[in-house]
């Protein structure tokens, strides 16, 4: 739940919320629209992922779309709802999003992870603990989100149902975003809006780090009750909503196990991923579908995945997941070693690389950044205020493509022709190719 009024996007191979907010120039949008994220041999397969089973649904044809666009939407719409007309506001918000880009898969954050933004009966709905007294929530940002959730109740709807109602004829896949171990709350206290009651009532389930720190707030995935609770939320969504699967985020904040036990306990997470896959298979069969989509968002490097206890290779080999998103925590990076992930996903599942509208991450300290013009938030002069420019987004896209995300030009042409086109595109924008394009960005259109 970010507070900067923007959303994460994966458009074509990369792209970001910048497109939805009009910060991407038309030239860049046209170039990104020509790239897709297929991982079939040589990037030539019409099926993204080189033969990944598709969902037998009119909306699920995007698994084989020529230019798939996965758009990850934060909960910003709930927090910006005006005092009246909540349902209509959310519908207009979604329509505005899809009008900017051809979105093949829309991911709406629904459970981050134990507080739910939809009308859950097994998880804690964001507004419920306050009952009628929302004035006890001091932060107006969160209070407005709670008011929006409450305003949808009389119509027996929620944010997920509202999105389905708008997009079901649009042809897009619709997936809820489920975060596994995010701990947005800084304290375990009832006054923290995002601190789950589950944590407050079960402090013994919180991870105990080897340094015996007292400020840890994430619940450990080693605890069977924690895994069961979060699985129950996934099960409820899969059974009660007309959605096409789940995007499961194990990147935010990747605190699943105590630091000194992460490698040892990786099999626990692996078993849980298999359980999630089987959980989705049950409602798929009842709906007459061959499969519901399971996408997983993981940290940006193999080492980081290992340190978090995530055996992503086994998940892919077991055919449990349909796409894998390699994602920096909250920024855009052209330095991701995509080839390490392509080595085990090629021909098995779709490989995506995420970028953000943030270029500098969350660091709010010095130094002050100069010369970025509109790409720097005036009130945040450091790294945290850096917004991704056209050139930076394209540099990321080209690097991810070059180093293994197997993006391809939309039109069907021979591989040599595609390579020449990519080189010509890079040349027109002043990029000479190679792994480290970031240092060349000052040459691009004078944007920096």
Structure, explained:
The structure is a single chain. This protein is an alpha/beta fold. The chain has a single domain, classed as TIM Barrel, CATH 3.20.20. It has 14 helices and 12 strands. Strands 1-3-4-7-8-9-10-11 form an 8-stranded mixed β-sheet. Helix 4 packs across helix 6. The longest helix has 21 residues.
Strand segment tally: 12
Number of helices: 14
pLDDT averaged residue by residue: 77
State the shape: globular
Distance between the termini: 29 Å
Work out the strand percent.
5-15%
CATH A-level architecture: Alpha-Beta Barrel
> What is the fold-level CATH name, i.e. the topology?
TIM Barrel
CATH class: Alpha Beta
Amount of helix: 25-40%
Which structural class matches the secondary elements?
A: alpha/beta
| Strand order, sheet with most strands | 1-3-4-7-8-9-10-11
CA gyration radius, whole angstroms: 21 Å
Return residue spans where pLDDT drops below 50 for at least 5 consecutive residues.
1-58, 60-67, 406-448
What count of structural domains?
1
Major sheet description: 8 strands, mixed
Set down the secondary structure blueprint.
Layout: E1 9-10, H1 17-20, H2 26-33, E2 35-36, E3 70-73, H3 76-79, H4 86-100, E4 105-111, E5 115-116, E6 124-125, H5 140-152, H6 159-167, E7 173-179, H7 197-201, H8 224-240, E8 245-249, H9 266-286, E9 293-298, H10 302-307, H11 312-317, E10 323-326, H12 338-345, E11 350-353, H13 390-405, E12 408-409, H14 415-428
Parallel strand pairs: 3-4, 4-7, 5-6, 7-8, 8-9, 9-10, 10-11
Antiparallel strand pairs: 1-3, 2-12
Helix pairs in contact: 4-6, 8-9, 12-13
């Amino acid at each position: 739940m970010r507070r900067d009024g923007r959303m994460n996007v994966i458009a074509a191979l990369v792209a970001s919320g910048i497109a939805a907010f009009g910060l991407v120039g038309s030239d860049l949008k046209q170039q990104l629209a020509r790239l897709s994220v297929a991982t079939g041999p040589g990037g030539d397969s019409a099926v993204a992922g080189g033969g990944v089973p598709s969902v037998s649904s009119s909306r699920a044809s995007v698994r084989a779309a020529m230019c798939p666009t996965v758009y990850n939407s934060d909960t910003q719409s709930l927090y910006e709802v005006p005092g009246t007309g909540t349902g209509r506001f959310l519908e207009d918000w979604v329509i505005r999003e899809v009008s900017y880009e051809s979105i093949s898969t829309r991911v709406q954050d629904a459970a981050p992870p134990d507080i739910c933004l939809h009308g859950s009966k097994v998880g804690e709905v964001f507004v419920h603990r306050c009952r009628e007294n929302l004035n006890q929530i001091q932060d107006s940002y969160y209070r407005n989100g709670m008011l929006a959730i409450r305003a949808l109740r009389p119509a027996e709807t929620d944010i997920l149902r509202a999105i389905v109602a708008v997009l079901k004829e649009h042809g897009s896949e619709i997936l809820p975003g489920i975060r596994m171990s995010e701990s947005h709350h800084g304290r375990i206290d009832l006054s923290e809006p995002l601190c789950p009651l589950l944590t407050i009532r079960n402090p013994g389930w919180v991870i105990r780090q080897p340094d015996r720190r007292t400020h840890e707030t994430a619940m450990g995935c080693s605890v069977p009750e924690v895994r069961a609770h979060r699985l129950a939320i996934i099960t409820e969504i899969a059974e009660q909503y007309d959605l096409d699967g789940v995007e499961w985020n194990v990147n935010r904040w990747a605190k699943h196990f105590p630091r000194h036990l992460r490698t040892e306990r990786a099999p626990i997470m692996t078993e849980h991923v298999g359980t999630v896959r089987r959980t989705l298979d049950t409602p798929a069969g009842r709906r007459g579908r061959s499969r519901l989509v399971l996408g997983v968002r993981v940290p940006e490097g193999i080492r980081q995945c290992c340190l978090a206890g995530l055996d992503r290779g086994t998940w892919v080999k077991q055919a449990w997941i349909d796409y894998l998103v390699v994602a920096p925590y909250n920024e855009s990076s052209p330095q991701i070693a995509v080839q390490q992930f392509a080595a085990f996903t090629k021909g098995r599942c779709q490989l995506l690389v995420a970028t953000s509208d943030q270029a500098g991450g969350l660091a709010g300290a010095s130094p002050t950044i100069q010369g970025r013009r509109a790409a720097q938030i005036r009130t945040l002069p450091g790294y945290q205020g850096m917004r991704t420019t056209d050139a930076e987004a394209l540099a990321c896209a080209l690097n991810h493509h070059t180093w293994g995300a197997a993006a391809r030009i939309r039109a069907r042409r021979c591989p040599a022709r595609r390579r020449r086109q990519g080189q010509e595109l890079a040349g027109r924008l002043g990029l000479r190719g190679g792994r480290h394009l970031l240092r060349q960005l000052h040459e691009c259109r004078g944007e920096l």
